[in-house]
Amino acid sequence: MHATLPLLQHSRFPAIERRALDTLQVNLGYRCNQSCVHCHVNAGPKRTEMMDGETLELIPEVLRARGITSLDLTGGAPELNPGFRALVRAARALGVRVIDRCNLTILFEPGQQDLAGFLAEQQVEVVASLPCYSAVNVDQQRGNGVFDKSIAALRRLNALGYGCGDERGLVLNLVYNPLGPSLPPPQHALEQAYKHELFAHFGVRFDHLFTLANMPIQRFGSTLISKGQFNDYMRLLHENHDDANLDNVMCRTLISVDWQGWLYDCDFNQQLGLPAPTVSQAPERLHLSDLLHRDLHGNPIRVADHCYGCTAGQGSSCGGAL
Question: Which CATH number is 148's domain given?
Fold first, then answer.
């Protein structure tokens, strides 16, 4: 696989700094039941990296110590971590909003047959990846048969009350990302198209669609290099940069935690091995345990050329367009 970091380090991206922390985004491990071509984590069934119990136990302590209101769980497939459910229960007991970034097909994996019911019981918000409402496009990006399984999973979640807008309040959001080296279309218009197509053809309901730009790193970045498209894609991101998006980029109020507990300004920096910068009289590298007694407000954010992926066009974040 081609390394993309050397192509991203010399950047003119504007300097930005942190605000008050409200979201802890935790990568529980790189193991996944899928291997998607756009995956910036290089997750897959053969990955063995997994957050251990000692690090998992730190998370509720940090949520309490820093007054963090949202816990965003990702992977790989975060549900494959043996401590996933205990962590969710502990966070919900603190009144923390929990988000599960779910690939949908995980609901049909061995041992996960009751997962949907567990998520509903704990009122976990589900952010589900569905890169298109077309079976051909989804299977091309995520693997044969993934679309049909995804639709079956969405129907299961709907049956529990997810995405139906009723008194149960179970939130189901979908994620779209382009199939290739292009920017996402306008989020609102695409959301309306998704809602119409998924309900008309499959009876599926959901709350919101998040459009995300593909990041030129890891598996997707390597593919761009192999196809001779890397420079063109970076030019597209640069030419569509909008300073107005800088105010709302997710790294201002979110901190990313890898499976070993190390801190990064975002999930993309995590995959590039660019740790959150420290300040004077601080350790060389920040760990989750440092958040028990350290406030990051005002710290600089480590930027590189891939950051243009978050500020190009309508902007891109873990919560969709900016």
Answer: 3.20.20
